[in-house]
Specification:
This protein is α+β, with helices and mostly antiparallel strands. The chain has two domains: 8-55, no CATH class; 76-177, no CATH class. The protein is built from five helices and five strands, in the order ααβαββαββα. It has a five-stranded antiparallel β-sheet with strand order 4-3-2-1-5, with helices on both faces. Helix 1 (8-29) packs across helix 2. The two termini are 36 Å apart.
């Protein structure tokens, strides 16, 4: 019996899937650690721990992994990226019109809309300049990784609106919280 030919990308995805299975099994056995290794770990444990730290997620600015980023994590229902000339699916207005409606000046880099929850679970949209952070989130979410950014610094937050901007790309957490994860 012959196997279908795998592309290089398919091969890398399969290696990543197997690496995640190894990390999951180590976690189930109770010895997996994302922290620096203790002196008494075996060579296999050291290798699996390093593998786990490496594949935890794609790193991006504001992911909370840098030591200087000790800000709290923001749980997001979803995000929207607004860019000149490339509006998201479902948005019928121009970039300039969307910026005017939201109350922000158009930026050449665009804006990221972070749909989150405020006090008493009230929906809120943070309009932030952290476009690169949002792109990093989307790269992780597209691979099923539940990753969230740290709270942006005040200079990155243009405005906060009550309610959510939609349509949005749902986060894994947001999809589960809304009952849309597709899992029983």
């Amino acid at each position: 019996m012959t196997r279908p030919e795998m592309t290089e990308l398919d091969h890398l995805r399969e290696v990543e899937r197997l690496a995640r299975a190894v990390v999951s099994a180590a976690g189930d056995e109770g010895w997996l650690s994302y922290a620096p290794d203790a002196g008494d770990v075996t060579g296999v444990q050291r290798a699996v721990n390093a593998l786990a730290r490496s594949i935890r997620h794609y790193h991006f600015p504001g992911d909370g992994c840098a030591e200087e980023e000790e800000r709290p994590v923001v749980r997001l229902a979803g995000v929207v990226l607004l860019r000149p000339g490339a509006m998201p699916t479902g948005w019928t207005e121009t970039y300039e019109d969307a910026c005017a409606r939201l109350g922000v000046e158009p930026r050449s880099d665009g804006w990221a809309l972070w749909n989150t929850w405020g006090d008493n679970d009230m929906p809120a949209t943070m309009i932030v300049s952290a476009v690169d952070t949002t792109e990093g989130l989307l790269a992780n979410w597209s691979r099923g990784r539940t990753v969230y950014p740290v709270m942006p610094v005040p200079s990155q937050v243009a405005l906060i609106h009550q309610g959510w901007s939609a349509p949005m790309i749902l986060s894994p957490h947001g999809a589960r919280k809304m009952g849309l994860s597709g899992r029983p």
